Every structure is written in C-alpha cells, then in structure tokens.
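Memo subject: From amino acid sequence to discrete backbone structure tokens
Keywords: amino acid chain, backbone geometry, structure tokens, three-dimensional fold.
Body of memo: The sequence and its backbone structure tokens, given next.
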Amino acid sequence: MMNTSDNIAAPATGIGGAISILRISGPDALAIGNRVWHGKTPLSAANARKMLLGRAGSDSALAVYMKAPASYTGDDVVELHCHGGAAVADALLRLLLASGCRMAEPGEFTFRAFVNGKMDLVQAEAVADVIGAGSEQALNVAERQLAGSLSHRLDAVWEKLNELRAECESHLDFPEEELAWDPDVAAKINAVAAELQALLETRELGATLRDGVSLVLAGRPNAGKSSLLNRLVGYDRAIVTAIPGTTRDTVEVSTVLRGLPVRLTDTAGLRRSNDPIEREGVERSRRSIAAARITFWLLDASAEQLDEELAEMERSAPPGRIAVWNKIDLVPERELPKLPGPVVKLSAKTGTGLDALLDAFAAAAVHDPHPAEPEVAVNARHAALLREALAQLPEAVRNVESGDFEIASAQLREARRLVGAITGRSVEPDILDHIFSRFCIGK
C-alpha cells in the first residue's frame, strides 16, 4: 500500500543505456544516500541540487540531493547516477534496499507529488501521457496538461459551480431579505454546462492520441499491401516482390499519420492455400483484421478478375473498412466498380492518391480529415465524471427557474463534487490506487 512515510527507491531509467539513475524519496533519503554513496564531501543542504562525484558500492557514481519541498515528490530526494547496465543498477538497488528503503510501487513517486501538492490529479495523469506519447501532437497536449491547461479550466468551472451553489443557498438562508439576487443564475448554469460539454467533446481525439489507432492492411496476395506499408512509414519495412504470397506473417510497425499515432499491421494475402505456413499466416491475418479499428482493404485495380478481389472483401466484412483500389498507375483509364463506403484510388508505387487515403483515414479515426491539435484532451476517467456532472445541470436550471432553490443547490453541489474529483479535490483512495498503478516503476 502506497504511503508517504516510508523511504522508497527504484530505477528511474530503463536498464541497458549508458547511465542508470536510481531515485530515493522519503524522510531519510539524505541519510540513506550518504550511507551508500561516498564522495569528498557528503550530501547535505549546503550542496543541495549540485551533482557530486563519488562512489556507490563498487562503482563510481554521481549523486544529487534535492531538499524538500523543492523536489519532484515534495519529499527529500536523492538521485544516484551510475554506469548503465543491469548488473551495476541491480547491485546498487539491492544496496539501497538493504540500507533502509523499500522498492517503490508503480507510480509511487508521482503519487507522493500529488499528495504533497506538487501537482493535481490531472497533471499526475499527464505525466503518464508524456511518457507514453506516440506522436508530437500527443506529446504537446500531454505537456500542456502537465503544465496545468486542463486543470485551470476545471478549477474555473469548480469555482463557478461553487458560486452558483452559494447563490441558490442564499435564497434559502435569507428568503425574506431584500438582497440583490442574481437574475442570471439559470443562464450561468447553462454556460457551465456548455464548457463541460466542450471539454467532453475532446474525449474521442484524446483517446486516439493516447491509445493510438490500430490500422490493418488487408487484401488478396499481391494487392500491394507491403508496398503501401513502406510508403506509409517512409522506409522499406516489408519485403516487396512480384511473387504473390511473399508476406507469410503479420508485420507490425508504429508510425504517425495525420498527427495521430498508429499501430500499423501488414497482413498475409487472403487466399486458399495448401501450404500450412501460409494457412497459418492467413489465419493470423483474419484475427488482425477482426481486431482492427480501421482496415485499408487493398484491391488490385489491374487484376484480370475484379470479382475475385471484391468477393474476399465482402466475405471478411472488416470493421472500419476503407476500400483502396491500388495500382491505378497501371490502368489509369479503367472503369472500376462502384463500392459502398469510403473508396480511394491509389498507386502505392508512385504515391498518387496518398493524401486522399490519409484524409479518409483521419475522417474514420476522428471524423476530421485534417485534425487540429487540441488545446486539451480529456481521458476516459475525466469523461465519465464530466457526463455525471453534466447530467445534474439541466434539472438544476429547471429548479432555479421554478424557485426550488434547495434542490438546485444540492444538484450544483453534486456537480461541483464530480468536477473536483477530476482534479483530485475529492477522490476515493481506491481510485488513486487504480490511477497510479498504471504508471511505470520509478515514476
């Protein structure tokens, strides 16, 4: 169970790089740091935030002490920078655990930062978003939310709900007094609802930026799937030959399309085969297609029998299908069958039609062929609380207009509580455990 009284330690960097950093946080961090690290002068408040050279165990190491509250966690923190490699870092970690620390749980350093008021819950979640960002847009949004952009908007809503609640309660406390009642309470509640709705509408794009889009390239052998994969990622990731069935297994790669992070999968061509290896590849292809959010189904526009190309697509009925007539450079004048749903004509070889394909992709992913980078983007937890808060407000407006201020006050109080739960003003311990358990160890 996470707490703020233990001394905790964990690697703050991945194992295997040139340098490994181990982080200590807690009331005895300075004493433990001096117990395992030795230099010309010990770590102290006099040399806080200065990198000092010494030795930790059998390895030379740099050490830095950050005195509370001017640290990431708000507690005393010591970082030890040693040579990279699993053996060196593991030996130093075992020394720290034997010297008064316990192993930090996932997200425990950031949990302490939240508890100590270094950041609110939205900013803490943004730390994980920064680490996991798969595109420049995702990183920019996460960094803005870490800096407080979403928190400031939510805090403004919380304050406005508090003012409106107080206005309603004043009608109950001083019903006979000649006070300057605010005549625009209902309109102001509607304005708050509009702001909450605007935040809620960033959920879909936020989910795409955080989680990415699963995109599969499917079709019959030799339809040009591997050529398109290479075109989309910008380098030769998949083998391309004129021999049908070259791709026997799924090929996966991460990329960014229209600013959105994408998990792109090239699949084996779909056809009947007596080759057991190819049959297994086809089965894996079908599983990938069924799990995909969007499928580019490639159709060979130059094929002699177009009916065969279309029959396999109709049998599979993939989700989020975008039909792609490929190899149009070979048959520029050919009349192609009309198909339902999004259809793009493309030459993976020359790049003709690629912009139209990316437009269709973005429209399918976020309903916008050219998605602009959002100022903020709420996550699933935020969205659930925003919906609950929004549900309180229409009835609160009706109660204000009918003069039932007691019920309106209760509804505004509940909406305020729900908005506060987003930033952590009011949140249950089990919710905190769930949020921080998804972080990596050392963060």
